[in-house]
Amino acid sequence: MNRFHGQSLSWEFKNGVVELALHREPCNEIGSLTLEELEKFVAALETLQRQAHALIIYSTMKPGFCAGADLRELYLRLQEGDQSQAAAGARAELERIHRVMNTLDTSPLTTIAAVHGVTFGGGFELALVCDIIIADKMARFCFPELRLGLIPGFGGIPRLKRDLGNGVVRDLLLTGRSINATKAQAVGLVSQVVAEGEALKVARITADQLKKFDRRAAIAAKQFIKPIPYEELLKEIDIFCELFTQPAVEQGLKKFVESTEALSYLP
Amino acid sequence: MRTADQTLDEVLDLAATHFKVPREKLTGDDDFFKTLGIDSLQALDLLTRLEHHFNVELPDYELQGVSDFRTLAGRIQARL
Fold first, then answer.
1. Span A221-256, pLDDT tens digits
2. Which of A115, A187, A263 best tests the B interface by mutation, with the highest count of B CBs <10 A?
3. How confident is the model at residue B75 (pLDDT cuts 50, 70, 90)?
4. Residue B28 CA to chain centroid, in angstroms?
5. What ipTM score was computed for the predicted complex, to two decimals?
6. Cβ separation of A117 and B41 shorter than 8 Å?
7. Is residue A9 helix, strand or coil?
8. Domain of A184?
9. pLDDT of B1 higher than 90
10. Are A159 and A125 a contacting pair, CB within 8 Å?
């Protein structure tokens, strides 16, 4: 399927480049609908990547790339059934999202995240599966999960550890603070910082450059430099599920869902 | 080195320009959420613009409990 327009995302294959656009209000929160459409996308990618050389992931939503998991949906899941059912449901969903993330991470295409604005939690984790992150100067990156009594669950910690020094990982994870694109570039997370509103344009220019290279060489280079931390990814799911049924999580989610504070997105 | 008053002026100038509020309507003691009519996502946008403008890194948890421009400017001044 060369083209798809869903409720939360769309994709198009053109001139050797697959573009995946996220467009769910308000800021591409990843819930069951987005997950279903992401699964459709990775299924279609099997065929698309035989003809393509690059994948660009971007958002058409003004506030940013992606604000992370749909916390309202997560809260409702915790309300339904008993603790063991909630934990089993969370594990099943995490395993599905990990399959999507791992497929994107190991895709033979060179993958580019063109990010702007809020790139938080699961959105940050989606950017981290990409080979190259090109950030609008107004982008902000953050792992706010600790304030909910959780850890990132979409593969964030193992992938952040793969790409950055442990000191930076600890700071981001344990303080829950957000950093801007300039800082993200300084620590080696972002490779290019561009002017406001220009990330997608620069990603397209970068994707155009990639088609000049032999695909076998590009795939070999990617496989050599980018190992997938499978064991740690599985461990992350275990830790997340252990924490998920703790009272602190329900309280944290309740506080977020019911919040009318202007500061609800700030850790 | 900027003085605290200069820093506050620049914060007010930047906020007025970006959020299209008449500069003369903003004072240091105003609650920026109310005066600018912004939510947390827009506050992050303001924070990023201030970091770029002053070339500082301002952890967002330092904004917890801060809602007036003068205190915000003071937090920036401490990092200049």
1. 999 999 999 999 999 999 999 998 888 888 888 888
2. A263
3. very high
4. 9
5. 0.83
6. yes
7. strand
8. 3-199+214-258
9. no
10. yes
Fold adopted by B4-77: 1.10.1200
Report the gap between the CA of B11 and the closest CA in chain A (Å). 17
For the stretch A49-73, pLDDT in tens is 999 999 999 999 999 999 999 988 8
B48 contacts in A (CB within 8 Å)?
137-138, 140, 180
Residue A181 domain-assigned (yes or no): yes
Does A34 map to a domain? yes
Coil, strand or helix at A12: strand
**Total of domains in chain A:** 1
Quick check: is A206 in a domain? no
Chain A residues touching residue B33 (CB < 8 angstroms): 262
Q: What is the CATH number of the domain that holds A84?
A: 3.90.226.10
Q: Which residues of A touch B44 (CB under 8 A)?
A: 118, 140, 178, 265-266
Give the predicted TM-score (pTM) of the model. Answer: 0.92
State the DSSP string of chain B: ---HHHHHHHHHHHHHHHTT--GGG--TTSBHHHHHT--HHHHHHHHHHHHHHHT----GGGGTT--BHHHHHHHHHTT-
Task: Report if residue A16 sits inside a domain.
Answer: yes
Question: Among candidates A69, A56, A14, A87, which has minimal Cα distance to A199?
Answer: A56
Report the alpha-carbon distance of residue A148 to residue B65 in Å, rounded.
Answer: 19
Angstrom distance (rounded) from CA B12 to CA B27: 7
Gap from B19 CA to chain A (nearest CA, Å) = 15
- In this predicted structure, what is the pLDDT of residue A245? 86
